[in-house]
Design goal:
The chain is mainly alpha-helical and about 290 residues long. About 75% of the residues lie in helices and about 5% in strands. The chain contains 12 helices and 3 strands. The protein has helices at about 1-30, 35-45, 55-65, 70-85, 95-105, 105-140, 140-195, 200-205, 210-215, 220-230, 235-250, 255-265, and strands at about 230-235, 270-275, 280. It has a 3-stranded antiparallel sheet with strand order 1-3-2. Helix 3 (about 55-65) packs across helix 4 and helix 11 packs across helix 12. The radius of gyration is 39 Å and the shape is rod-shaped. The relative contact order is 0.07.
């Protein structure tokens, strides 16, 4: 009993994780306007162990994938959640529903109509048999023979009518089934092509495009602007602000790379003096002549 409950729990978890990964891939495919967000979603979709809880998801992207842009990660979470929610279907107008019903009746209605037609044909046949037997008893044997022939002819005619109606209904059902089968085949072909088509940039080894802002951004200039605007700032605070801005412009870089680059650049920024854990604007001594 313990083994069965554990296996069912694992199956449920696998199903939930599978549907979550489908949402991740759908979000990556539907993102078209933001190339930076699409690149991040494609990278996330390459993993199988993406957390389903928001807090764990944010930590996973930050620590495992080395992405420090919080706004970008939040947008990725929102896109995956949106892709996982069922889309609201707008109801069709009553006139359209009636038209569809008249063209292709549901299978349940078709079966009921077939049953009603069969019951009606049986009742009419029984009634005609009773009438024929009564007329034969009252009018004699010759009249009974003529009535019997008339009953047989009417039976054949009504059976032919019922068969034609049943054939028409069965044709409508077969047409409806063919339409459903074609729609399913088209949907499956579209899903297969969307899943099979690879990311050309990843196959060719080309890194995702970065915005034009990343090319213009310089860490040393930003450090200089921060120190000059404050006059004096702690080195720890300056490092946090500068590396955060650097990662926003360069999302493919890791926090460790940004930290090492800051340590390398901060001592070489012109006009900035670093002493005793603080960075300040360097003051030039003027000598009176």
């Amino acid at each position: 009993a313990v083994v069965s409950t554990q296996s069912t729990g694992e199956d449920k978890g696998a199903l939930k994780q599978g549907s979550w990964m489908v949402s991740v891939r759908d979000a990556a495919e539907s993102c078209k306007n933001n190339s930076q967000l699409k690149g991040l979603l494609v990278r996330i979709a390459e993993n199988d162990n993406v957390p389903r809880k928001k807090a764990k998801f944010l930590n996973f992207i930050k620590n495992s994938m080395r992405v420090g842009n919080k706004d970008l990660v939040e947008n990725a979470w929102d896109a995956i959640e949106k892709a996982g929610k069922p889309q609201a279907v707008t109801p069709a107008p009553p006139a359209v529903i009636e038209e569809v019903k008249s063209i292709s009746p549901p299978e349940q209605e078709v079966e009921e109509s077939q049953k009603k037609l069969k019951k009606k044909s049986k009742k009419t046949a029984n009634a005609e048999n009773k009438n024929g037997s009564l007329n034969g008893c009252c009018n004699g044997q010759s009249d009974g023979n003529s009535n019997g022939s008339n009953v047989k002819a009417s039976k054949k005619r009504k059976r032919a009518e019922c068969n034609s109606k049943i054939e028409n209904v069965s044709e409508a059902v077969s047409l409806k089934k063919k339409k459903k089968r074609k729609n399913k085949e088209n949907e499956s072909s579209v899903e297969n092509t969307s899943l099979i088509q690879p990311n050309l940039n990843q196959v060719n080894g080309i890194a995702p495009e970065t915005p034009n802002k990343a090319k213009k951004y310089k860490l040393s200039n930003h450090i200089q602007e921060l120190v000059f605007s404050k006059g004096e700032i702690s080195l720890k605070k300056l490092k946090r602000k500068a590396t955060t801005a650097y990662l926003e412009y360069n999302p493919h870089k890791s926090p460790e790379e940004a930290s090492r680059l800051f340590d390398k650049k901060v001592m070489k920024v012109p006009g900035v003096c670093v002493e005793h854990g603080t960075a300040s604007k360097e003051v030039l001594d003027t000598v009176e002549s």
